[in-house]
């Protein structure tokens, strides 16, 4: 097992006290940046590290920081801690395990782009995380690392924790900004992108929790060593595995190795059936894909995506029709209703599934599902609606027999 | 002042807290969600008076405040029980047996998801993925997350909340 970069802070109950974090080398990267490491150098390290956004889109982090206009007088850092993509729990684990790691990443980001204020948009349901983050920020403030004149310099970084109110769509970056401004979480038209006009129409660096937690390691280790160690990524592995959990593994680890070497394999007597490799928005993969490298490009070529690296594993006891039905219900309930393909499409699809599950399905229903999925592809205003077709279409391709079984009034269960 | 009677729906302390929250942002409207929770925590749910008071405190049109409040799952425009039980029913929890947990809860509470027990003690809800899939099936009661819940563990769990 390679040296751990992120989980070392989280394992064995984690590190919550400032002194313990500092003794282990915490806040050293932030100190170096505060004491005069030029922003270009920080950004160069990020570019060379190859770090990409861990929220789902995988955008190169260094490039994102570069997009923030240097000359703008007011800028913000906004942290997307509204983790909600089904199957994803790595950000929650980081916040609960070592809140100081996120705080340090935020300080570095704010100093580098020249922002004086950062907001953490935290999922309301992260009650424990909220208490721990508030405590960590208070400790860092007392120690002169958050607030005015941090690290004895003339620079200031304020951090405010802002709890959401229960809306999956608020995890979409532009909807998050709307919500943070005190409105309904409806996605914004882009461009302009947050880097030009984000929070309060000012240039805004929006990053996922895990992404910022990688930043101190990139600075401390240097991009070469960071690359050699993986590059590391957190995978949330859950579903029908013996040891579900957050695993830090090199990008490109195979699904087979994740399930059978790391997550304890399947329960006795069970056989692998399918997995979502990157949250419920990613197309299902099957046994034929067990040896595919789990990285951005390979999964894309395989017709799926790494997304938030949330691996949901299903064994042969899983009913694929039921799984997809539940997934679409979720998107229907969480659709903000702004655009028609998403609002209506998710309703239509769940109506077909209701019919199938009630054993009243019609032969033409499978083609109808494909047709609605095609109508939603590329037509939705934001990624929420676009998340529905991939797994639906993949399930119809790989597990058509189970759908036909429902239509033929049989149960797709246990063969 | 016309706004005074509306503000009276919230205590002095709640109004001071909303003012403090508004100061954390460049625009006071950003404090709307946190302010709504202050009002909800005090009144139990967002009564028309509480919504009006929040609107007054942040100088927002009350219809905007109602529109925002109605968008989010965790803001209640109707009365809820003293304890809110939220069961995750997303894929990982489903694969690990949340269906049986929901059934047992329904049976014990005599309430379906979305309903409140007649004694006003519990409101049962299903929830979006709670980002704790390694603890599936998982549920949240008020602010506490409970991991690996079994149908047989439901009684002991409910007994902790009076």
Gist?
The complex is a heterodimer of chains A (415) and B (162). Chain A has helices at 18-23, 28-34, 39-49, 61-67, 90-97, 99-113, 127-142, 173-180, 209-221, 223-228, 255-262, 296-301, 320-334, 340-357, 365-376, 383-386, 388-398, 400-407; strands spanning 76-81, 117-122, 158-163, 204-208, 232-239, 245-250, 272-276, 285-286, 310-315.
Word description of this protein:
With 415 residues, chain A is an alpha/beta fold. Chain A folds into three domains: 7-227, 3-Layer(aba) Sandwich (Rossmann fold); 230-315, Ubiquitin-like (UB roll), CATH 3.10.20; 320-407, Up-down Bundle (de novo design (two linked rop proteins)). Chain A is built from 18 helices and nine strands. Chain A has helices spanning 18-23, 28-34, 39-49, 61-67, 90-97, 99-113, 127-142, 173-180, 209-221, 223-228, 255-262, 296-301, 320-334, 340-357, 365-376, 383-386, 388-398, 400-407; strands at residues 76-81, 117-122, 158-163, 204-208, 232-239, 245-250, 272-276, 285-286, 310-315. In chain A, β5 and β6 (245-250) form a beta hairpin. In chain A, α5 (90-97) crosses α6. The radius of gyration of chain A is 22 Å and the shape is globular. Chain A starts with 17 loop residues before the first helix and ends in an 8-residue tail after the last helix. Chain B is α+β, with helices and mostly antiparallel strands and 162 residues long. Chain B folds into two domains: 4-69, no CATH class; 83-159, Glutaredoxin (3-Layer(aba) Sandwich), CATH 3.40.30.10. Chain B has a four-stranded mixed beta sheet, covered by helices on one side. Mean pLDDT of chain B is 95; it is low at 1-7. At the A-B interface, β3, β5, β9 and α13 of A face α3, α5 and α6 of B.
């Amino acid at each position: 097992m390679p040296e751990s970069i992120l989980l070392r802070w989280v394992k064995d109950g984690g590190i919550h006290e400032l002194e313990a974090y500092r003794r282990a080398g915490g806040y050293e990267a932030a100190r170096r940046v505060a004491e005069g490491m030029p922003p270009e150098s920080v950004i160069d390290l990020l570019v060379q590290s190859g770090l990409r956004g861990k929220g789902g889109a995988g955008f190169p982090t260094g490039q994102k920081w570069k997009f923030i206009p240097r000359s703008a007088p007011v800028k913000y850092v906004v942290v997307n801690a509204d983790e909600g993509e089904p199957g994803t729990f790595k950000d929650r684990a980081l916040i609960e395990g070592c809140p100081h790691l996120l705080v340090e990443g935020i300080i570095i980001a704010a100093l580098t782009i020249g922002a004086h204020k950062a907001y953490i948009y935290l999922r309301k349901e992260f009650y424990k995380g909220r208490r721990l983050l508030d405590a960590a920020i208070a400790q860092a403030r007392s120690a002169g690392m958050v607030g005015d004149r941090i690290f004895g310099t003339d620079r200031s970084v304020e951090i405010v924790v802002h709890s959401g109110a229960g809306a999956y769509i608020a995890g979409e970056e532009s909807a998050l900004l709307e919500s943070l401004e005190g409105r309904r979480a409806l996605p914004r038209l882009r461009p302009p992108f947050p880097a030009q006009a984000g929070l309060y129409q000012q240039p805004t660096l929006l990053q996922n929790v895990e992404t910022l937690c990688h930043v101190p390691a990139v600075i401390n280790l240097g991009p070469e060593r960071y690359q050699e160690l993986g590059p590391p990524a957190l995978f949330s592995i859950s579903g029908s595995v013996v040891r579900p959990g957050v695993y830090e593994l090199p990008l490109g680890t195979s699904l087979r190795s994740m399930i059978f070497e790391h997550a304890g394999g399947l329960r006795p007597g069970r056989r692998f059936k399918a997995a979502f490799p990157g949250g419920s928005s990613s197309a299902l993969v099957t046994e034929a894909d067990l040896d595919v490298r789990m990285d951005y490009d390979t999964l894309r070529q395989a017709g799926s995506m790494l997304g938030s690296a949330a691996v949901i594993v299903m064994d042969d006891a899983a009913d694929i029709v039921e799984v997809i039905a539940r997934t679409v219900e979720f998107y229907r309930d969480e659709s903000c209703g702004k655009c028609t393909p998403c609002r209506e499409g998710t309703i239509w699809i769940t109506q077909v599934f209701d019919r199938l599950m009630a054993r009243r399905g019609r032969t033409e229903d499978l083609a109808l599902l494909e047709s609605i999925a095609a109508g939603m592809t590329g037509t939705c205003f934001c990624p929420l609606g676009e998340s529905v077709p991939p797994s639906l279409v993949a399930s119809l391709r790989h597990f058509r027999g189970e759908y036909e079984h429902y239509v033929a009034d049989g149960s797709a269960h246990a063969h | 002042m016309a706004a005074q009677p509306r503000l009276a729906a919230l205590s002095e302390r709640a109004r001071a807290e909303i003012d403090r929250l508004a100061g954390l942002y460049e625009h006071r409207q950003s404090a709307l969600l946190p302010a709504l929770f202050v009002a909800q925590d005090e009144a139990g749910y967002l009564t028309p008076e509480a919504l009006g008071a929040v609107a007054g405190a942040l100088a927002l049109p009350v219809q905007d405040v109602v529109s925002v409040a109605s968008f989010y799952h965790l803001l209640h425009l109707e009365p809820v029980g003293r304890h809110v039980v939220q069961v995750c029913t997303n894929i990982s929890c489903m694969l690990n047996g949340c269906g049986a947990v929901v059934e047992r809860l329904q049976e014990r509470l005599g309430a379906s998801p979305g309903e409140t027990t007649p004694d006003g003690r519990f409101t049962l809800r299903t929830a979006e993925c709670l980002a704790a899939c390694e603890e599936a099936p998982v549920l949240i009661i008020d602010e506490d997350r409970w991991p690996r819940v079994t149908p047989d563990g439901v009684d002991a769990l409910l007994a902790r909340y009076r």
